[in-house]
Amino acid sequence: MIMDWIKVGQIVNTYGIKGELKLFPLTFDPDRFNQGGKYRIEGMEESISITHARPLKNLVVIRLEGYDDINQVIPFKGKYLYVSEGSLLPLPEDTYYIHDLVGLEVYEGERQLGRLAEVIEGSANDIYRIENLDNKSFLVPAVREFIKEVDLESGILRVELIEGMSDAF
């Protein structure tokens, strides 16, 4: 990952011959690509601007400033698009950026279970993969029934599990 830069999309293909790209958004607000700002493409040091973005089914078609030919953008296929952390959009209440959650220490009551190793994005809800010190892991649905508190300032995620959920421990 690029330091201080956060993934917001993956370029999946070109679109047409005039340098447009199909982007799979990794953000809660695909309209963010119409709001200006500087971006980086994986492997590039210089920042770029998006001059135009429009939805296309579950994708976003983008045009990059200074790129107007398919041959210029073909090398971007499969690369990630990043935005600086300072340009992230504000989130609704009780919603968190994945990069802020990964690494949180996970507790059930006073018992430390491990750390949040991964957030698996699902269609109904996300799933948290909790990993202990022995690299054993278990999955917890990211719903209010199980996730009781997220304290980013303290680096703690508090959970309440049901029997059998944490058999890895």
Topology:
Blueprint: E1 5-15, E2 20-25, E3 38-41, E4 48-56, E5 59-64, H1 70-73, E6 80-84, H2 98-101, E7 105-108, E8 111-120, E9 127-131, E10 137-141, E11 147-151, E12 156-159
Parallel strand pairs: 7-12
Antiparallel strand pairs: 1-2, 1-6, 2-5, 3-4, 3-6, 4-5, 7-8, 8-9, 9-10, 11-12
CA radius of gyration is: 19 Å
Intertermini distance: 31 Å
What is the string of SSEs from the N terminus onward? EEEEEHEHEEEEEE
Give the rounded overall mean pLDDT. Answer: 89
Largest sheet geometry: 6 strands, antiparallel, barrel
Number of strands: 12
Number of helices: 2
Shape: elongated
Give the low-pLDDT segments.
none
Strands of the widest sheet, in order across it, are 1-2-5-4-3-6
Strand content: 35-45%
* Structural class designation: mainly beta
Q: How much helical structure, as a percent, in the residues?
A: under 10%
Provide a descriptive summary of the structure in words.
This protein is mainly beta and about 170 residues long. Helices cover about 5% and strands about 45% of the residues. The strands form 2 sheets. The protein has a 6-stranded antiparallel β-barrel with strand order 1-2-5-4-3-6. Strands 10-9-8-7-12-11 form a 6-stranded mixed β-sheet, with no helix packed on it. The radius of gyration is 19 Å and the shape is elongated.
